[in-house]
Amino acid sequence: MSTEKLELFEVFIRSKRGLDHRHIGSLHAEDHEQALEYARDCYTRRSEGVSLWVVKSGDIVASQEDDSESFYDPSDDKPYRHATYYKLPDEVNNM
Amino acid sequence: MPDNADNNLTLQYAVRLGDDALILGHRISEWCRNGPFLEEDIALSNSALDYIGRARMFYGYAAELSGGKKTEDDFAYLRDCREYQNLLISELPKGDFAWTMARQLIMDVYYLNFLSALSESVDPNLAAIAAKAVKETKYHLRRSTDWVLRLGDGTEESHARLQKAFDEIWGYIPEIFELDELEQQLVDKGVAVNTPELQARWQEEIRGILTEATIEMPEVSWTVRGGRSGYHTEHLGHLLSELQYMQRTYPGLQW
């Protein structure tokens, strides 16, 4: 048997409560249920997390290389969108 | 405080539970790098390690009861077939993938019931080992149930292979639920699990899963037993020759 007929899944793991799920890798499985089991076996054997998500890779809509000009370039000349652009008055110690 | 005679009985009991775990774990480990695909290969190897870890806990406790005369390695590497007391079902060759999963389902349902009962043993060490092992067993059972449903209710070929596997294994099941004199004595003291009491529940749980998997419960017309008294199938010797090779070839070898 090969993995040709199996679906590809992306695995996300929450390493501890309060943190976000983070992409950790991908795997092959027949369906979601099996993908969750393999995620447990492939990615959580060393107490890496408290919660797992599996998502079919095909269900992820990703931006393309061609999009970068229209997606990201327009913010290059707008430094005022970053908090570091602003000088804080001394009275504000920590923000 | 238990006296020496009791200690010795418990030691033997711990060793045979270790034997069950080590031999079955070794069989599962034979899938390592032979799994049907990478993810399943990793999952099977994980299960094998769970069993080998369990064997170490039982042997370690037996070594403790021996008062330092034995080590866990003595039990694993320096005993021959006749001294091994594992259930015969554990030593049967791994067969094809369906065969392995059929045996795992049988053993996982058994172990979940067995370990839950052992976790209430009056012996605190056995109870603690069981309480630890029961968690991984729940996961093993989830996996084997999943595969039996997939294969049984899958293609014509997977169904046929799985049915054949259950038909071939079935006669090895009665031995699991029998008590010999050693275990009977320990059951009377509240140390060992009264396995015959587990059979009805095991039967019902297996029936539920097999029905859903469209697999027929085989009718037992033959049974084989003997593992608990050291009478094994011809397969155990070959398994041990591989398992014990390093210690037999280089006695006293350390990692």
The most extensive interface, with participating residues per chain, is: A-B, 16 and 13 residues
Strand content of chain B: under 5%
Radius of gyration of chain B: 18 Å
Q: What is the SS-derived class of chain B?
A: mainly alpha
What oligomeric arrangement do these chains adopt?
heterodimer
Question: Structural class of the helix and strand makeup of chain A?
Answer: alpha+beta
Please give the alpha-carbon distance between the first and last residues of chain A: 57 Å
What is the averaged pLDDT score of chain A? 88
How many distinct folded domains of chain B?
1
Inertia-based shape of chain A: flat
Largest sheet features of chain B:
none
Explain what the structure shows.
The complex is a heterodimer of chains A (95) and B (255). Chain A is an alpha+beta fold and 95 residues long. Chain A contains 2 helices and 3 strands; from the N terminus they run ββαβα. Chain A has helices at residues 32-43, 68-71, and strands at residues 7-14, 21-29, 51-56. A 3-stranded antiparallel β-sheet of chain A has the order 2-1-3, covered by helices on one side. In chain A, β1 (7-14) and β2 (21-29) form a beta hairpin. Chain B is mainly alpha-helical and 255 residues long. Chain B has a single domain, classed as Ferritin, core subunit, four-helix bundle (Ferritin, Up-down Bundle), CATH 1.20.1260. In chain B, 65% of the residues lie in helices and 0% in strands. In chain B, α2 (38-65) packs antiparallel against α6 (124-152). The longest helix of chain B has 29 residues, at 124-152. The mean pLDDT of chain B is 96. The chains are: A alpha+beta (95), B mainly alpha (255). The interface between A and B is medium-sized, with 16 and 13 residues.
